[in-house]
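Q: What changes when adenosine-5'-monophosphate-propyl ester is included in the input?
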Amino acid sequence: MTNRDSRLSNLLHETRQFSPSESFRENANVRDESIYESARQDPEGYWSEQAQNLSWFAPYENVLKWQSPHAEWFSGGKLNAAYNCVDRHRQGPRKNKAAIIWEGEPGDSRVYTYDMLGREVDRAAHMLQDLGVRRGDRVTIYLPMIPELPISLLACAKIGAIHSVVFGGFSSKALRQRIVDADAKVLITADAGWRRGALIALKANADEAVVDTPTETVVVVRRVGAQAGVSMQAGRDVYWHELLVKTPGAPFPAAEMDAEDILFLLYTSGTTGNPKGIVHTTGGYLTVANTSMRTVFDMKDDDIFFCTADIGWVTGHTYIVYGPLSAGATVVMYEGSPDFPGRDRFWDMVEKYGVTILYTAPTSIRTFMKWGAQYPQMHDLRTLRLLGTVGEPINPEAWMWYHEHIGHGRCPIVDTWWQTETGAAIIAPLPGLTVAKPGSATRPVPGIDADVVDEHGQSVAPGHGGYLVIRKPWPSMLRTIWGDDERFRRTYFGQFEGMYVAGDGAHKDADGYVWILGRIDDVINVSGHRIGTMEVESALVSHRAVAEAAVIGRSHDIKGQAITAFVTVKEGIETGDALIAELKQHVTDSIGAMARPEEIIFTAELPKTRSAKIMRRLLRDIAEGRVLGDTTTLADPSVVEALKTQYKESE
Ligand code: PRX
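A: The predicted holo structure follows.
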């Protein structure tokens, strides 16, 4: 039995159902079930109607041009994402409404109204322009969760430059790889960031990363100050605040971008090779991000929306920046760790700011469960009215705990399935309509034609499982992989003609609900972060002691999956705890702490088929202590026995 099988057998016993309360239903933005059918009959009409919620400088000529696998949505239409997220709100009643309520880990906080945010974005746009950034140029952003991060994104968007955010937890090597791939001329970073009271040396990583890359200028935000002890390289490094005082402070005119101009790149892991630069364009991405705020998150003007993700991942792009701000919401943004200084930090913020919608990840919910209900109980959470989860399959127990201890049985939960590639949440409940089942992302949202199909691409009957696919193009789909269109075709459209393959396994129940079972490729989902097994393997074999490595994900109570690495060493190398520690550190240095293997098992040989393919399924079985499946294709069955014994010994 695999991870997915065991999840499935648990889920098949799940029969609880939860309907929204009468009062939630009555006040919901979407109350009429017919939205699904009308969008199904005319998806282009539906999306075109949704696109009208954005401000366009010039109307589009076509809603969709589809030449599989390439889609163009709203092409010919002109708009600017930053204008939509900030400037248009400055001109109306939201001018002095809080756009971003930011809280730093040490307890400092800042509030930006839409008007203030607009001024900051314009100043940053002038600054980037003065540094030579032009429309279409790439800017890499490597910042902690401070206001300068969304301001940088929006400043790029205002100019029409393409941003590529690299999560602050990535190592200098990973940062460098992404800078080089994107050919970025400017890097924006900070002296350091705060995490659990300690410093994260972002500038030091950036210094290593930019050597011999196209990056000519490094802009440094001073977050920490003298304590960070950074050194500035003359001619290359400049402080953000020193540049800003030189900018004119005049409005920056929003670049009129075509709907199909690229808004951003965001790198994510795949089955093979280097991370993929996922390409999102302006009009379609913003349309779905904006729509989901109204439909999935039921956003009203007086909501306070707290998404706990980092802007380094797609969830933060879409649900801290582009979705909520384009909808004129107030977002809460937090810099640090949920247990600093106490384990009630999130609940303290919910109470303090009167958060009404909370969006977090199953791995966090499981951590909160482990810590205990006494922490949320310390605070008044009555302002909450809707809860969301994202990033990995949620187990029904975690769903129930969230429902009871955070939502107090009152708040609908939206379990939102989506990916970096899909741009926004596309399989999710509409909270005023959908009867939720704990553990299911329920149904595709209106306008999305997702399905579960068998190996021939045929829709499976209810009660069966298969591949999760999306049959028709949707506005916020990735357009390509930066610099590698062939890989884009192969990865997402290579299996079934004209259909997008998500890489997840899923089950469809009798009501047509989708139950996501997890990745079916060599991608591991650790605490909601995608990590390619190949990336970790390449990091390991780049160490002088390692001959060969095989990496698998095994189930983990809190993280969902944890990384186990099986390693063979070169002749004459001594194995032991010291080498394990060294290898773990080596992976941290190569990729980042999130890719650090939970365990490393040394083995004389790896189990391989007769055609020399590593049998990962067997390794997973060993790591999860299961009875081993079929080993008849194995070249040398004794390898498995040896491994089993060794794995037990290492526990
Ligand atoms: O396996 C699915 C899982 O996360 C993957 C996408 O990862 P990423 O591109 O990093 O984006 C994460 C945040 C949108 C998917 O292929 N996943 C995401 N949301 C869910 C999920 N699995 C089950 N249920 C979800 N709600």
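Observations recorded in class: The first strand starts at residue 64 and ends at 67.
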